[in-house]
């Protein structure tokens, strides 16, 4: 029998203390244990959003709420948190979001409807998401409608915004939404209830204990195994704030994608990161996926890892003999083989700070523009002073057994004056550094072409006055 863990958490409006299998996902707990069947099991891979819930974490005197897919959310991580399912949003009358879905004909088979309602409500609750059509689209980015009723659903989002924005703007979101009958009043009591829950100690790990950060990959890959196990769950809510070390930024390895793209210090150095984030995953996935999880999962097409390679990240690894530092580009020894022991933890990631002459770009090609795995991805960082490339770092994904740092290509650019000829030479050098294979996402030849075009795009995007895109691509035919 699987070992259990006693946790206390707030489920909708009820404070619960119970024994759970730590690896059991919240979707199964809601539907099978609590008989709360509003959250639907669609893909059970975090892609469709039918099982979306809202999770609140206490931060000081307030509760920070984020949407998450309950099919990838382990119960062992919910101690001291507020889990809100679709049932927890119900009141005597329909909320403005529910009413808008009804008025606009936003439901057909109904299977996706709970997830959309939860996601739209989460978007309204998040202070950083604008009360606009664009903000509502952002909130619904992780939800699919199998009946393709998107026009009606988006119309419902607009109706909800039009009604609520005048009532909420300029005020703290959650109290204002409660006042507008868009949220149950129980949300106003959540902080006090969560404060009453004592912490539980971290569980020590062993060599055979699976270590789970966000679980957005592991619970898909090992979905039959982890829900019945007792993995070491890294508490992302305890992630430390980013620290300015002078020449570097120190990032907690448990930092989520969403936190990374919103971090003030990260954005002060690399503002374009905010633009790449929506192309890496949906909002509910980004609230769980972590930097270290993406790195240690070691997928050859890991989006965040490719970006961190170009940022010249270094990893601080906690081992039985103390902390060790290793460059991310040296971390991969082969397919899914890492330069660490199974029980070692990546606890910190350091990236150099940008100078006034730093330029960063990230590119990705996939079958769908968003919410899809890359066929090939690439990232590049340049420091250019007076037209001369002081340093360059380029990375590729999807063309080798590991995420790939282009050592020779990066070195060939450093110290040279930026010119079309230099770019063409660099693209030729890059072709010697990888040997892609054919798979379901494309042939080897296609990936070679994609890699060349994406590498070229870094130059044409960042330096259009020097590198003309039409002329460069014409010369490559």
What does this entry look like structurally?
The mean pLDDT is 93. The radius of gyration is 23 Å and the shape is globular. Helix content is 33%, strand content 21%. The protein is an alpha+beta fold. A 5-stranded mixed sheet has the order 2-1-5-3-4. The longest helix has 19 residues, at 150-168. Helix 3 (113-125) crosses helix 4 (133-139) and helix 15 (407-413) runs antiparallel to helix 16. The protein has 3 domains: 5-195, Ubiquitin-like (UB roll) (Roll), CATH 3.10.20; 235-353, Uridine Diphospho-n-acetylenolpyruvylglucosamine Reductase, domain 3 (2-Layer Sandwich), CATH 3.30.465.10; 364-477, CO dehydrogenase flavoprotein, C-terminal domain (Enolase-like, domain 1), CATH 3.30.390.50. It is built from 18 helices and 18 strands. Pfam families: CO_deh_flav_C (PF03450), FAD_binding_5 (PF00941), Fer2 (PF00111), Fer2_2 (PF01799). Residues 5-89 form the 2Fe-2S ferredoxin-type domain. This is FAD binding domain-containing protein. GO terms for molecular function: 2 iron, 2 sulfur cluster binding; FAD binding; iron ion binding; oxidoreductase activity. InterPro entries: 2Fe-2S-bd (IPR002888), 2Fe-2S-bd_dom_sf (IPR036884), 2Fe-2S_ferredoxin-like_sf (IPR036010), 2Fe-2S_ferredoxin-type (IPR001041), 2Fe2S_fd_BS (IPR006058), Ald_Oxase/xanthine_DH-like (IPR016208), Beta-grasp_dom_sf (IPR012675), CO_DH_flav_C (IPR005107).
């Amino acid at each position: 029998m699987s070992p259990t863990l006693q946790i206390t958490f707030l489920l909708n409006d009820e404070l619960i203390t119970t024994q759970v299998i730590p690896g059991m996902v919240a979707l199964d707990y809601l539907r099978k244990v609590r008989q709360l069947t509003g959250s639907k099991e669609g893909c059970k891979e975090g892609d469709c959003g039918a099982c979306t819930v809202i999770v609140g974490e206490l931060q000081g005197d307030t509760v920070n709420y984020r949407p998450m897919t309950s099919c990838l959310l382990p119960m062992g991580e919910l101690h001291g948190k507020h889990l809100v399912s679709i049932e927890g949003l119900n009141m005597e009358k329909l909320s403005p979001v529910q009413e808008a879905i009804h008025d606009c004909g936003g439901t057909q088979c109904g299977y996706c409807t709970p997830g959309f309602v939860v996601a739209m409500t989460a978007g309204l609750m998040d202070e950083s998401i604008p009360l606009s059509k664009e903000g509502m689209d952002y909130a619904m980015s992780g939800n699919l409608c199998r009946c393709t009723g998107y026009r009606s659903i988006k119309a419902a989002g607009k109706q909800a915004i039009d009604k609520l924005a005048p009532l909420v703007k300029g005020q703290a979101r959650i109290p204002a939404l409660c006042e507008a009958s868009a949220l149950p009043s129980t949300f106003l009591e959540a902080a006090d209830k969560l404060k009453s829950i004592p912490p539980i100690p971290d569980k020590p790990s062993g060599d055979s204990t699976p270590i789970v950060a966000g679980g957005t990959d592991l619970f898909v890959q090992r979905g039959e195994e982890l829900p019945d196990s007792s993995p070491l769950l890294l508490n992302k809510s305890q992630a430390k704030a980013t620290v300015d070390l002078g020449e570097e930024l120190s990032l907690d390895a448990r930092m989520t994608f969403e936190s990374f793209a919103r971090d003030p210090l990260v954005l002060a150095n690399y503002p374009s990161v905010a633009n790449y984030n929506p192309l890496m995953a949906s909002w509910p996935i980004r609230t769980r996926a972590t930097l270290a999880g993406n790195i240690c999962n070691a997928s050859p097409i890991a989006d965040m890892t490719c970006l961190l390679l170009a940022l010249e990240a270094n990893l601080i690894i906690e081992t039985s003999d103390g902390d060790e530092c290793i460059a991310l580009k040296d971390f991969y020894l082969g397919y899914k083989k890492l330069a660490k022991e199974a029980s070692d933890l990546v606890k910190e990631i350091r990236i150099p700070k940008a100078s006034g002459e730093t330029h960063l770009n990230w590119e990705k090609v996939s079958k769908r523009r968003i919410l899809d795995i890359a066929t090939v991805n690439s990232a590049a960082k340049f420091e250019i002073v007076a037209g001369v490339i002081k340093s360059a770092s380029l990375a590729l994904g999807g063309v080798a057994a590991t995420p790939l740092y282009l050592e020779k290509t990066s070195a060939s650019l450093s110290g040279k004056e930026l010119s079309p000829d230099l770019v063409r030479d660099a693209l030729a050098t890059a072709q010697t550094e990888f040997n892609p294979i054919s798979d379901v996402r494309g042939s080897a030849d296609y990936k070679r072409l994609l890699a060349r075009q994406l590498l070229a795009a870094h130059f044409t995007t960042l330096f259009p006055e020097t590198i003309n895109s039409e002329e460069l691509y014409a010369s490559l035919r």
